[in-house]
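User: I'm writing a short methods note and want a consistent example. For Chaperone protein DnaJ, I'll paste the sequence; you return only the structure tokens, no commentary, since I'll be parsing the reply automatically.
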Amino acid sequence: MPTQIDYYQLLEVSRTASGEEIKRSFRRLALRYHPDRNPDDPEAELRFKEINAAYEVLKDPQKRAAYDRYGASAFQNGGVGAGSGFGGFGGGGFGGGFNANDLGDLFEQMFGNARQERRRSGGQDIQTQVEITLAEAFTGVKKEVTIETRKPCETCHGSGSSDPKGGRSVCPTCRGRGAVRAQQGFFLVERPCPTCHGEGETVSHPCESCRGSGTEPTFENVTVEIPAGVEDGTRLRLHGKGAAGPGKQEAGDLYVLVTVEPSDLFQREGATLYCRIPLRMTQAALGAEIEVPVIDGTKTRLKIPAGTQSGQSFRLKGKGFSVVHARARGDMHVQVSVETPTRLGKRQRELLEEFEKEGGDHAESSPQNSGFFSRVREFFDGQG
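Assistant:
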């Protein structure tokens, strides 16, 4: 089977996917790569055409069977599919004509919603980023960010016109629709009107200050309320805090990307926290009670039983991370690491040597060590 084109990979489905799974994946990818959503990306346009070609084959049981048996060559230049009425990339286009019904509701969703959105909000969305500590993510915090945005023009009060009465008229290019349609290859695509930029109206006498846009650039301080339990990479939306729209149209939205800085003490996985704590050799051997830091700024005591091994983990219930919009908390897992002393005094060395002479490596006191070397001896005895 030829490997240069894999329709299943193009549609991001397995070769055993059902027809409904293929259709759902096609609709998702078509929305992502449609030329109207990627006007300056030729690769997206090419991917869009490839996706449609792949779907045209895989949605039809007969074409799919031919593809599974012969590959893409079945639909190119006289291949098995071409001779049997199957279409593809070659010659006859996308399977003898693309079925617009498969994308009718999808296009309506894209273009219809886009036109409604343009009338609802003429302002642009803005994105910014804010960094917080893990402790701030636990408690929640308010952060002030400075954004570069646009506000209504002070000269024309947002109308965009030097005429006090407004001076706005229906756009002659799109006739008020805010969008124009054009043939692009095999498809009819819809783009924002180049004359009115999607507004559906034009200004007869543009304001000299804002040149008819109705807005002017400015910097603004915005307070962002970050909820407790927020995770790294969360994007918060502040409705109406984006750039102002022309005329009386409402402003866009502000999107805040939250970045949580790594902690020196804790690692987080959802609502679960992990903390690694070093233990002295004597603490692990004899047992001890130690203080453990908690993310809420307090401390808790943890009892270490005698004979604790390095890497052993203890769970502290309800000492983990907060959950967004909930009062619950996760757990914290404390993993101990037994630390071997590196700088021994004379007396310390004498005591350890005495401990070794007294049988410090016996099976009763060091079961893992004794067990391992017992297996080593058995291995070599078996080899002999």
